[in-house]
Each structure stands twice: as C-alpha cells, then as structure tokens.
C-alpha cells in the first residue's frame, strides 16, 4: 500500500495524468487481501501511455500484470509531427528514453506530458515490450522484467485476460495468436477497450480497466469457491457455470457502466 | 491448508526461476493428484502440471520425460469421481500438451505400451466428457481434439517446429506396432467433423464458436486434409441466429465477438496463403460476414421506427399545421356595473385583475405602436367587431344611464362624469348608437365622417389629429428642419473638387479598350458615343480643356492675387493635373491620350482667342510639361517622342529645344536627331525651326555632331558653305566651347 502510493505520487509532478495516478493511488492502491488473482496483460501501440496506465493501475490493485505494444517501433511525439522520437522495443528502457528526451528539450517534453509519462513508466517496469516478440509462457521470474510492477504472479509468463486499448491492437493480438498456432493449449480472453491515445482518456480508460478486472476476478474467484458442498452435492458438472461462460455477461454489465468505451471480445488460445 | 499453498507457490516460483527444477517439483506434487486429496490441492496440481507441460522453456527431451512421468497423474485427475470443472480444465489442458509429446515418444519407443494405453484412456475420457461438460471444460476438450487432429493428420510442413505442433501423421512409420496411420487419420477426420459440428450446433454460444474458430487457423494452413472441411463449415456458419432475439447489450457483444473472430480467422488465412486454391472461397466468406456485420451494426445504429399511432394521428407536434386552428370562443364582454367608471374601465375587455391594473403608459410609445400595429394586423375580424360593439354598448349604456340634465359649458355631448369628459369630444360620440330615443344632443350634432375628414384635411399635417386636442401642445411635433450644412470655404471646396476630379478617373481602370479599332475622328468625334475607355478619355480631356473656360478665369486671377502666390487649383487644372499623371503612369502606351489632349488644348485656345475671352492659354504649357515628363523617362528605343512631335498641333522653338537635351546622352542622340529629321521632312511649316534646333545641337553636343552635320548638309544649303572647314566660324567656336 505505502509503496504504491509512493510510486504514484513519486511520479507525479504537475501533469494531469500523474495527478490522476495520485488519485488512483488512493482508491486503486488497495490492501492486498490475497485470494485468487486473474493474470492480466495490457496492450496498446507503443506500450507507453494507455497500456502503461492500465499496467500501473492493475498492479496498484494487486493484480499480476504485464504489458506490451503491438507497433513495429516505439513512437513518441517529437518537436513536430514529422520528427517523432523512435525507439526499439525490448532494447530501450523507459529510463534511457526519459534521460534522452530530458537532455533534448526539457521544456517541450515536460509541457507535452512525455517526461511525466516516462517518469511514471520507469517506476512501473524496465522498458517497452513488443507483443509479437513476446515468447508466451517463457518464465518471467528472472531477467530484466522480474522487478516490474505486477510481476508478482506472472512468473509463468501467461495471462488469463489480455486487454487491448485499440481495435487495431486487438486485431494484431488475435492475428498473432492465430499465427502462433496456440502451442500452449491455454484459453485466453482477449478484450478490446477503445481508449483514445491521450493522457486524459488513458486515465479514464485505466479506471475502466481496473473496473473490468475487478468484475472478472470476482466471477473467477466465485468459480473457485464453488467447491465442496455445492460441487459435491450437485454431483454433475453441468449444473454450474464457470468463469469463461460468465465473461460475456460481465462484459455487458461493464459496457453499461462504461458506454463510451466500446468493447470487443473473443476467446483465443495461447 | 494455506501453509501448504504457500509451500506450493514457493515451489512453483522456483520452477519458473529455473526450469530445470520442474522435473523434481512435478515429481513432488504427484502425490496430491489422487481423488482422495482435497479438491483445492488437486486443482492446483492440475494447473501446475498443465503449466509445466506447456512451458516452452523446457527442452524437448525434458518435456518428454516430464510428460511420460505425469500422464498417469493426469489420468487420475480426469477420472476422479467428483469431476470438478477446474480440475478437468487443468487436466485436459495438460493432456492437450501431452498428446503430441506422447505420440512422438511412442513412435520411437513402441515397446512402451502402457504409456500409449494411458494416453488412449485419457483421450477416451475427454471425448466422453466433451458433450456433457460445462462450457469452460468443453472449450478445453475442443483444444485437446485440435491437438489430436494435428497429430493424426499429414502435415505440409508449414507449422512452427519445436512447439509440438509439428507432430503429424508423416512422422509415424507405416508399420508401427501401436500406431496405425490410417486408423489415426480416420479418427482425426471424425473428430474434426464433430468439432466443426459445434459451429452449427452451438452457433449462439460465443465461447464454443470463438474457441473453435481460434483453433482452426493452423489446421487449415498446415493440415491440407482438413482445410476444405473447415472452410465449408465456416461458410455455413451463421453467427446471426441470435440477431433475431432482442438486441440486448450482451447479445450485441456476443454477435460482434463471433463475427469479428470469424473475420479475423478468414483474414488471417487469406493473408497467409493469398494464392491458395481455397482463397476465393475464403474471400467470399469474408465478404459475406463483413456484409452481415455492416447490416447488423447499421440496424443497431438506426433510430427507432416511428410508432404506428404516431403516423396515423394528426397531432404530431413536429408536423406542420395544415388545418385551421380551432376557432376561438367568441369574446364575451361584460356590461359595466352601474356607477361611475373610468375611461380605462370602459375599454377594458379582460376580466384578469392583474391585466386591468397594468398601466400601459409605462410602455414606451414606439413599442406600444408596434404592438398595436402587429395586433391589428393579425386580429380576427369577428373578434374585433365583437370588441368594438361591446365597448360601444357600454358607452351607450352609460349614456342611457346618464341624467338628462348636463352642465352647459362642457362641450361634450351627453356625458356627466368627469372621466368621460376626457373622451375626445369630437370622435367619442360618433360610435354611439342612440337606441334611446329620448336622448337629444344639446349643442351640436356629432359630426359625420365627411366633416371629420374635412377637419383632418385642414389640420397641420405634422401634428396627429388626436394630439390637436391635447392640452399640452408642446408634445406635438414641430416641422423638422435639417441642420444647415457647414459653410463651404475655398479649401474644403478645393478638397471636394479634387475628390470629384479623382472620381472622374475612377472608371478608366475598369473600362475596356474598344474591340474594333475605330477610325479616329479627332476633334469632330463625339465624346460619349460609346462607353469605352476612348470615349471616356475624350470626355475627360474636354472637361479639362473646355468646361470652365471663361467662367472662373476672372475669379482665378483674383484668387491668385490674394493667395500670396499659392496657385489656386481650378477644377480644370485639377483634371489637367490628374490627366498628366494618368498619361505619365504609362506614357509609352498613353501617348495618344497625350496627343489628343494637346489637340483639345490647342483647339480650345484657338476658340477662346477667337471669342476674345481673354482666358489663359494652356496648350503651350501642357505640351511643354508633357515633353518634360516624357524626356525624363526616354530611352533610345522610344519612338513615342517622334510621334508626339509629329502629331501635336503646333510646335514651338521652346518645345523643340527640349529635344536637344536628349543629345546629352549618347544613347538617345539618334532618337533626338531622327525626331527632328522627321519634323524637317514632314512638317514644312516647322522645318526652319527644327533645322535651327539641329544647328544648335551641332553647336552644343559633340556626340551628335556628325549626324547633325549630315542633316544640315542635306537640308540647309547654306550650311555647307559656312562650315566647309571645321576650324572656322561657329564650328570652331563650338569645338572650343566643347573642349574648354
């Protein structure tokens, strides 16, 4: 709890997203009550803004979480639209990007919120990762990502739910999973939430992601609680509905609460 | 129990930190797989075995030994009597990972019959629970079946290696003790049909549909024996069955999910094999689903249909009202109660106490007038008649109720109350219908319309007739007079006339040159016979030269005298000034304007001379000024000077002497000499004058001397004799002057 708030307010300076992170620290950085935890994965284009907002908030809510980008390169706004700052996935750390931009033009990158965002990100994990390069199922207990926020519980390198932040990313994820041929035989719910790529929307989307995660985790935990008495008494497995079946219901309820973030969902395989 | 889970979690973490520990740890948890162990522990074990068997960090050999080691435990998990769905899920996932590994292992270890038997038992068990299992378990069954199909059909080698996906019928030797290729393939095809049947049977269960569709991509692209069947199934798959049920949010999400997943699969297949034999059918199916999705989304975004009663009922608020409005209830005017009344009360038609108390005089008069006009414009004639009659009846009743004797000095017919005295004495009685025969007007009869009209005609027009009677006549409007204009002094008059003159030149820029070059008519032309630039310029030049001749010349001299040497611009001179500027703006093209102007000036001077007007002569002044203007811009190629000199009506020595200055520039010497030669040749009256000028040039400008000498030799016979030798006479003086 205390580290969570420290992190959020430590990254916070004057920018909006970080202020909202600070708020999140109060309602999202909650006490870990233990119990069953679904494993999440957030995905956006550059693994910088939306997926990282979701990553931070899910980790503050004590969920195991990892995050990726589906773009070919990490692209950040530069001094003009034709001069973006481009970095390689998996090889560049948030810290090095932060330092580079700070050296280039501290005023510009502070004003457009990049430094605040990177400042937050470097507190969350080592560096941006590319979805297509991710070796699904490779243990993450070691390596440069072992100290990422939300790494606790992600040792096996798989997730139960993948949340993308843009239809394009959802398409990329599902298409990539089809290409991989699902060698792990593990079901995964891939859910897209359309979030616009700016700090404000990312913050709203982050809250929506945590809300969805809570709702999903609740039904997953309920599935697990149906042990013993009821399970044994019913004597038949068909009488109960499990987590997977209830995902569409939960999603519909969630969509009612967040009508401005259109959702797409499928059940795919790792 | 929680202590135990902590230990297990720690062990699990160790395995993922170092995959080489998997074997040991899996071995350690095998004792918690039998049915006698609490369900939570068995769930954990099933999950962990599934994770271990799927872990890509393990080498193939390690995975084989791990798999062989665990399949008995998997079987026991699956066959436990309680059939816990989560254990089944984990167990089936583990079995799906184990199946290709065991097949591959058995191929090279055919002696190990028990392992294959265990695997076969697991397969049988899974296939038996498949149909009746809860959906989450069913999903895993589908995935297991997919792995069986992958392992038991022939590959085209396009799948990734080292992931277990490459195990296929081709690697099974034809005469294997345990594995019969033909039987295995037949089984696989049977299972595929059963699996694809799910797309039809459960077409409204998104989990089954999505899970099935998401397993098909690798089958289509790497197992040719399955491709055609799968594409058939997808083509026949209709995700829109649910669309007929109410479109709840959940249904929308489900339908969208199934269509989108199918589209992703078809798109992936078409992209990976753009020229394959099945691609046209794949594209076709893709298009069909895209269309279905568009229709569905359009339907959802469309607005609600208009309810039938809203169509049939005419009371639609948004519809334009075409029928006449319901007739208003006829106005009811209460007769006045007996007793004295104010005039306001007589005319008050409303029963609303608040409105009656409203003092209309608070409203500004112009506003009242506007309201009155608007109201009168739209008021219903019948209602107005009713109101007028009502007021008339009231007044009649009041008259009737009035005592017969009235005070004599009041010139009001038949009113006794002070209030009624305020009624306009001339008009109020007019409307009174004298239904009471006993009543006799005492002093004079009320005027008839004719009389009133006469009176109105005689009234001063500015004063409204009703205000005539007002005691305070200061309220009446007096005759309105415009404030006197400011006194026009000469400066402002000059300024204004300058603006006027400028406006004369305004149209020039917009006017066209005449399309057909007309014959020049010179002074005889009419100024305004057509509206083109030419005629407008003629008008301007004549305005400048003729308009005020003899009118203000006397004044002008007077003004010249009083203005302390500052010349007062007359209108003509103003226009001349502007005409001069106009010509000089582009003098090469406007040289004809200049010539026309000079002609007009000359003509005007002559006319003025003949009439004896004593007006100042302008021609010489203008021509010189124009010449000076041209010369400062002249280059050697400007034939305009020659033309000007030859076409102006009168040449003077002074004008020709201006030409001399051209000779100071070697570039324009030729031009000056040619112009003078032209005058000498074609203007005999000016010949001598021009030759004198040439002579002067010969004297003054050394550059021009050879040419001047040549002309003088030719045209002035005496010149040759006088200047035969260069060292005598004027020539000697000239050269001295030049050399000095």
UniProtKB/TrEMBL annotation, chain A:
InterPro entries according to UniProt: RNA_pol_II_suA (IPR006811)
Main location: nucleus
Protein's GO biological process: mRNA 3'-end processing
Subcellular location(s) per record: Nucleus
A cellular-component GO term for this protein: mRNA cleavage and polyadenylation specificity factor complex
MF term (GO), any: RNA polymerase II CTD heptapeptide repeat phosphatase activity
Reaction catalysed by this enzyme: O-phospho-L-seryl-[protein] + H2O = L-seryl-[protein] + phosphate; O-phospho-L-threonyl-[protein] + H2O = L-threonyl-[protein] + phosphate
Record's keyword terms, sorted: Hydrolase, mRNA processing, Nucleus, Protein phosphatase
Top-level lineage group: Eukaryota
Compositional bias (Polar residues): 1-18
Annotated region described as Disordered, given as residue ranges: 1-31
One Pfam family from the record: Ssu72
EC number(s) given by UniProt: 3.1.3.16
Its biological purpose: Component of the cleavage and polyadenylation factor (CPF) complex, which plays a key role in polyadenylation-dependent pre-mRNA 3'-end formation and cooperates with cleavage factors including the CFIA complex and NAB4/CFIB. SSU72 is required for 3'-end formation of snoRNAs.
Protein family according to the UniProt entry: Belongs to the SSU72 phosphatase family.
Assembly and interaction partners: Component of the cleavage and polyadenylation factor (CPF) complex.
Protein name, per record: RNA polymerase II subunit A C-terminal domain phosphatase SSU72
Source organism: Sordaria brevicollis
UniProtKB/TrEMBL annotation, chain B:
Residue ranges of every copy of the Symplekin/Pta1 N-terminal domain listed in the record: 84-303
Short name of one Pfam family: SYMPK_PTA1_N
Gene Ontology cellular component annotations, sorted alphabetically: mRNA cleavage and polyadenylation specificity factor complex
Keyword terms of this UniProt record: mRNA processing, Nucleus
Intracellular or extracellular location(s): Nucleus
Chain spans, region Disordered: 305-333
One example of a Gene Ontology biological process annotation: mRNA processing
Keyword Nucleus listed: yes
PANTHER family documented for this protein: SYMPLEKIN, SYMPLEKIN-RELATED
Name of protein: Symplekin/Pta1 N-terminal domain-containing protein
Species this chain originates from: Sordaria brevicollis
């Amino acid at each position: 709890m205390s580290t969570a708030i420290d992190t959020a307010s430590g990254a916070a300076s004057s920018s909006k997203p970080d202020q909202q992170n600070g708020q999140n620290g109060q309602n999202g950085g909650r006490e870990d009550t233990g119990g069953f935890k679904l494993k999440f994965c957030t995905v956006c284009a550059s693994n910088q803004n939306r997926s990282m907002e979701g990553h931070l908030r899910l980790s503050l809510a004590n969920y195991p979480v990892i995050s990726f980008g589906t773009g070919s390169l990490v692209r950040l706004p530069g001094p003009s639209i034709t001069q973006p700052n481009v970095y390689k996935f998996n090889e560049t750390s948030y810290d090095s990007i932060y330092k580079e931009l700070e050296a280039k033009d501290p005023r510009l990158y502070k004003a457009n919120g990049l430094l605040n965002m990177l400042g937050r990100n470097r507190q969350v994990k080592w560096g941006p990762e590319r979805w297509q390069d991710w070796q699904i199922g490779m243990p993450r207990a070691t390596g440069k990502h072992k100290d990422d926020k939300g790494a606790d519980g992600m040792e096996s390198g798989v997730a139960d739910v993948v949340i993308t932040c843009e239809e394009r990313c959802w398409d990329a994820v599902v298409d990539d999973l089809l290409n991989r041929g699902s060698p792990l035989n593990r079901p995964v719910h891939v859910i897209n939430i359309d979030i616009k790529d700016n700090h404000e929307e990312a913050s709203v989307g982050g809250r929506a992601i945590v809300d969805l995660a809570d709702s999903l985790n609740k039904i997953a935990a309920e599935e697990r609680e149906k042990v013993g008495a009821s399970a044994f008494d019913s004597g038949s497995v068909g009488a109960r509905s499990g987590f997977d079946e209830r995902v569409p219901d939960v999603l519909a309820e969630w969509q009612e609460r967040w009508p401005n973030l259109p959702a797409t969902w499928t059940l795919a395989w790792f | 129990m929680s202590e135990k889970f902590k230990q297990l979690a720690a062990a699990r973490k160790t395995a993922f930190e170092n995959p080489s520990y998997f074997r040991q740890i899996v071995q350690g948890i095998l004792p918690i797989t039998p049915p006698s162990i609490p369900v939570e522990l068995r769930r954990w074990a099933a999950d962990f075995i599934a994770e271990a068997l799927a872990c890509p960090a393990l080498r193939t050999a390690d995975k084989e030994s791990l798999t062989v080691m665990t399949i008995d435990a998997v079987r026991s998990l699956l066959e436990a009597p309680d059939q816990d769905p989560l254990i089944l899920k984990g167990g089936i996932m583990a079995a799906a990972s184990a199946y290709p590994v065991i097949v591959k292992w058995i191929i090279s270890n055919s002696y190990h019959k028990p392992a294959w038997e265990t695997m076969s038992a697991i397969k049988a068990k899974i296939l038996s629970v498949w149909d009746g299992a809860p959906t989450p378990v069913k999903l895993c069954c589908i995935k297991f079946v997919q792995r069986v199909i992958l392992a038991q059909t022939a590959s085209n080698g396009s799948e990734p290696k080292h992931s277990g996906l490459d195990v296929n019928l081709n690697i099974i030797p034809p005469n294997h003790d345990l594995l019969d290729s033909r039987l295995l393939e037949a089984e696989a095809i049977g299972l595929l049909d059963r699996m694809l049947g799910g797309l039809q049977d459960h077409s409204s269960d998104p989990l089954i549909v999505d899970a099935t569709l998401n397993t098909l991509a690798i089958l289509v692209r790497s197992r040719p024996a399955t491709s055609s069947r799968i594409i058939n199934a997808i083509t026949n798959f209709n995700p829109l069955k649910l669309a007929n049920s109410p479109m709840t949010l959940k249904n929308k999400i489900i339908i969208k999910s199934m269509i989108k997943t199918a589209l992703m699969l078809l798109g992936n297949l078409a992209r990976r094999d753009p020229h394959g034999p099945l691609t046209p059918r794949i594209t076709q199916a893709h298009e069909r689903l895209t269309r279905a999705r568009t229709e569905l989304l359009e339907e959802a975004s469309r607005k609600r249909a208009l309810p039938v009663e809203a169509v049939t009922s005419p009371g639609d608020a948004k519809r334009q009202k075409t029928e006449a409005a319901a007739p208003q209830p006829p106005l009811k005017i209460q007769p006045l109660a007996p007793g004295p009344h104010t005039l306001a009360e007589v005319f008050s038609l409303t029963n609303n106490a608040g409105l009656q108390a409203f003092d209309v005089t608070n409203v500004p008069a112009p506003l009242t007038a506007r309201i009155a006009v608007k109201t009168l414009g739209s008021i219903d004639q019948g209602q107005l008649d009713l109101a007028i009659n009502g007021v008339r009846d009231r007044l009649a009743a009041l008259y009737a109720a009035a005592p017969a004797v009235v005070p004599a000095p009041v010139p009001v017919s038949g009113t006794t109350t002070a209030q009624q005295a305020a009624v306009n004495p001339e008009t109020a009685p007019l409307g009174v219908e004298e239904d009471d025969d006993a009543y006799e007007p005492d002093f004079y009869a009320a005027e008839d319309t004719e009389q009133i009209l006469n009176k109105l005609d005689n009234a001063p027009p500015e004063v409204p007739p009703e205000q005539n009677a007002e005691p305070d006549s200061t309220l009446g409007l007096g005759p309105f007079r415009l404030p006197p204009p400011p006194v026009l002094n000469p400066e402002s008059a000059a300024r204004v006339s300058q603006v006027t003159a400028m406006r004369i030149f305004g149209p020039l820029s917009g006017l066209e040159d005449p399309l057909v070059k007309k014959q020049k008519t010179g002074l005889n032309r009419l100024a305004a016979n057509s509206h083109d630039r030419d005629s407008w310029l003629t008008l301007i030049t004549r305005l400048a030269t003729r308009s005020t001749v003899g009118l203000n010349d006397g004044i002008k001299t007077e003004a010249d005298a009083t203005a302390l040497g500052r010349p007062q611009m007359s209108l003509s001179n103003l226009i001349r000034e502007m005409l001069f500027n106009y010509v000089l703006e582009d003098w090469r093209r406007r040289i004809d304007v200049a010539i026309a102007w000079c002609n007009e000036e000359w003509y005007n001077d002559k006319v003025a001379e003949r009439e004896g007007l004593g007006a100042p002569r302008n021609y010489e002044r203008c021509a010189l000024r124009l010449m000076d203007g041209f010369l400062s811009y002249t280059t050697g190629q400007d034939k305009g000077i020659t033309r000007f000199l030859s076409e102006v009506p009168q040449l003077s020595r002074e004008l020709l002497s201006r030409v001399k200055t051209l000779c100071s520039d070697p570039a324009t010497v030729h031009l000056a000499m040619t112009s003078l030669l032209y005058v000498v040749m074609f203007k005999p009256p000016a010949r001598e004058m021009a030759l004198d000028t040439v002579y002067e040039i010969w004297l003054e400008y050394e550059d021009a001397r050879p040419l001047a000498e040549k002309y003088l030799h030719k045209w002035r016979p005496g010149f040759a004799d006088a200047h035969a030798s260069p060292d005598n006479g004027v020539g000697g003086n000239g050269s001295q002057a030049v050399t000095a």
